[in-house]
Amino acid sequence: ALKLDAGRGADANASKNDGSTPLHLCAARGLFAMAQLLLDQGARRSSVTVSGSSPADRAQLFRDERLVQLL
Fold this sequence. Notes:
Elements: H1 22-29, H2 32-40, H3 55-61, H4 65-70
Helix pairs in contact: 1-2, 1-3
């Protein structure tokens, strides 16, 4: 089972210099279960990169309808 360890400082909304978050990565890689876990741990669907891309935008770009619906 997957589990985000917030007790050890894991941040579901951590972002890279370009503004991408773990949720953006999951959306781009088709990682549905991990995306669900991140959302359960408080990841924000509304996060955007410096270019304005949301996790849902990434899922749509990669044509992952299941993730698009989730996000």
